[in-house]
Design goal:
- The chain is an alpha/beta fold.
- It has a single domain, classed as 3-Layer(aba) Sandwich (Rossmann fold), CATH 3.40.50.
- The chain is about 35% helix and about 25% strand.
- Strands 1, 2, 5, 6, 7, 8 and 9 form a seven-stranded mixed beta sheet that branches.
- The protein is globular.
- The protein starts with a strand and ends with a helix.
- The mean pLDDT is about 95.
- The structure holds flavin mononucleotide (FMN).
- Flavin mononucleotide (FMN) binds next to helix 1, strand 5 and strand 7.
């Protein structure tokens, strides 16, 4: 069984909805299972994220998809606290060669979400992970997926009613499916 973790932070639930859609996509691939790991705000004390169980679960996965809302043009402070807490694993190459991907959502169509994705990509690179982007060509997909046209990962925009756009949901599901299919190969 291929095990994939989706680790994310979410304040108002939109990043969480995307994380669930990615897990749905993973589960369409035979032999793949997804686990959802939320970066809990309660696990951050005096600026330090401490949750050994989340870290242990990540150690056991074949691939990890990282997700954060875009806050002030970057990952949320909560997600950054999680990132910093992985430094001991960086030192001993614990996640090297695992597959990685990333996703983010912002309130604007171009609210500097790319910087968040690139932060996640660099983070994965620091760990020696293998980054996977999105191969859907923007504007060419019959289902309208990848509507905001990012190839580095999933960029989404919150709807006016505060939810997730249906096309962003479909793109998230596709990312999970692609991620699982490649890992199975
Ligand atoms: C402190 C803060 C900073 C934000 N900064 C940005 C930003 O730089 N770019 C953007 O597009 N949206 C920004 N937003 C909007 C959030 O990214 C958006 O509401 C997102 O859907 C929140 O994700 P969540 O529901 O998972 O918490 C910001 C929101 C907050 C609260």
């Amino acid at each position: 069984m291929t095990k994939i973790a989706v680790v994310y932070h979410s304040s108002t639930g939109t990043t969480e909805q995307l994380a669930c859609a990615i897990a749905e996509g993973v589960h369409t691939t035979a032999g793949a299972e997804a686990i959802l790991l939320k970066v809990s705000e309660e696990a951050i004390r005096q600026g330090r994220y401490i949750d050994g169980e989340v870290m242990r679960q990540l150690d056991c996965c074949d691939g990890i998809v990282f997700g954060s809302p875009t806050f002030m043009g970057c990952v949320s402070a909560q997600f950054k606290a999680f990132m910093d807490a992985t430094s001991e694993r960086y030192g001993r190459r614990a996640w090297a060669d695992k597959q990685a991907a990333g996703f983010t959502i912002g309130g604007s169509p171009s609210g500097d979400q790319l910087n968040t994705l690139q932060t996640l990509q660099i983070f994965a690179g620091q760990h020696g992970m293998l980054w996977m982007g999105i191969d859907l060509p923007a504007g060419w997909d019959s289902a309208g997926r990848n509507r905001l046209g990012a190839q580095t990962g999933l960029i989404a925009q919150r709807t006016e009613s505060g939810g997730v756009h249906p096309q962003d949901h479909l793109t998230a599901s596709y990312l999970g499916q692609r991620f699982a299919r490649h890992l199975a190969r």
